[in-house]
Amino acid sequence: MITPLQITFCALLTTLILTGTQLKADDPKPLMDSLVFSGRWDLRAPDRAITVNSGSYVHSAFSGTSLNAKFDVTANKAPMPTIAWQIDGGDWQEAEIAPDVSLASGLTDGSHSVWLMVRGIDEHQSRWTQPLIGSVTFLGFTLSTTGKMLPPLDAWKNPKLKIEFLGDSITEGVLVQAGGKGPDKATWPWQTDATHSYACLTAIALNADWRQVGFGATGLAHGGSGGAKGALDSFDYFYADCPRDDWQPDLVVINQGTNDGGMPPAKYEPLYAQYLALIRKAYPKAKIAALEPFAGSHGPSIKKAVDDAKAQGDLAVYYIDSTGWYKEHALHPNAASSVGLADQLTSALKTQVLGQ
Length: 356
Hints:
Elements: H1 4-19, E1 35-38, E2 49-51, E3 57-63, E4 67-71, E5 82-87, E6 93-96, E7 100-104, E8 111-120, E9 136-143, E10 148-150, H2 154-157, E11 162-167, H3 169-172, H4 188-191, H5 198-205, E12 209-214, H6 231-234, E13 237-239, E14 242-243, E15 251-254, H7 265-282, E16 287-291, H8 299-311, E17 317-320, H9 335-354
Parallel strand pairs: 11-12, 11-15, 15-16, 16-17
Antiparallel strand pairs: 1-3, 2-9, 3-8, 3-10, 4-7, 4-9, 5-6, 5-8, 13-14
Helix pairs in contact: 5-9, 7-8
């Protein structure tokens, strides 16, 4: 005989599985086994996952004929952030976030997988301090009546390579789709597209789990759009009052310098050295790839900071010369240019960093 207490417990367990969030902030257990989050997600609350970074994503396996995603849009204002998703490794599909977004219907009543990514956010909206207008608050998935959440793939939970990309709007994927989506999708969240950014494409080519951290207009010397702090002040936080978690990458790729292009090298070089030291302190075992920005800004200063770090005993930091990779006049690479940049970066990382 099932007691009322057992019914209550089962209802609570079902809610936790569907939302896929932590039991409570101080619980030592990981997320519910049905969902795997990648990227800089604030997972401290028991019922939601919050991110301010395009490129943050979640994997899940499920059964059933339909799948919906739930979002809390209380803090959002138009233009709304966009998401992209794949069902069973199919083509990317796209939509603006809403309280309830249909991701799939009419599926066979068997096992399926979903990859849901934050595609684009308006970099000008507040996303560093509350209210986080430029953010995505994910509440979980809902399934058809015959569906259930399934155990995740081991490759999602135990990736062979973990990368963190640290940069600005170029790393974020801003204007990757500029002019390419038509007049009905000309807003900033539609023209920003993490799925076609060089960072996402590079990570996929390397079969890596990744974090894509970019804030438009930021540099080492100053903050940027949406109230974001400069790279030195923002690194240890997901956003204000949300400290960085204990996740550890195998590789960090830095793409900083474009927005500090007018700074004298004598002032920029010590800031970059400070940034390298900050990252090394946080990630003592990671390889660090310091990329010359695609526009060529501060290449010599970055190389000298890397050489100095090596001379001081850090042999796991590398300089990547990107001269000649990007030949367009626009500051932000488009989708086509991003493919070429990702190819170049993937090759450089394989030969100059990961192969060492």
